[in-house]
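Protein modeling request. Please complete all fields; requests missing the sequence field cannot be processed.
Requester role: graduate student
Desired output: 3D structure, token encoding
Chains: 1
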Amino acid sequence: MGRSSETVGPVGAGPDLVVGADGCARPPWATANEMVRAYYDTEWGMPVRTEQGVFERLSLEGFQAGLSWATILTKRAAFRRAFHDFDVDRVAQMGEEDIQRLLSDAAIIRHRGKIAATVTNARIAQRMRTEGTDIAEHIWSFQPALTYAPRTLAEIPTQDETSRALSRDLKGRGFRFVGPTTVFALMEAIGLVDTHLVGSHRRGASGLFGADGSRR
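Delivered output (216 residues):
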């Protein structure tokens, strides 16, 4: 009998992991299509420490609210064109005319609140830099001492104490679309926490946490 392209993982892989034809175990969401799989295999959970990189992820997580991440990935190139590759200074210069223009751009998510929030957030990030830190450094200052070691998807929280604290901080600075669930998703995406399931071939790939979950 030929091997199926995807099967539920063998003993030890965990009940919520899918093993592909390449023998690698991934969570179901990472097997939606080749684009999502590549994102999971090469990018999700890897450390992102640049201002531009963190601002992009923060913005995309805000746009993702209420939608699937696959939808955001499909439109990612268009988002980059629309928001000048998420260069903080260039986005901060965008005004009402730009917002109106993007509301007619079917290649992105045409949500006025989210588009306007991206511009507002860029201006705040720009101001933070004049105060002695950039948004990436500030967010990374919230990195917890321990990460998670989930064996099932149910063991992964949608928010936690750190994301709630970071959300409060960002909201206090005026950032928008930075609720604790959105912030936790950001923390996962940029490697601030490792929520790869135990048994996933990406578990520990960031190199930031040891086998016991403690920060290196």
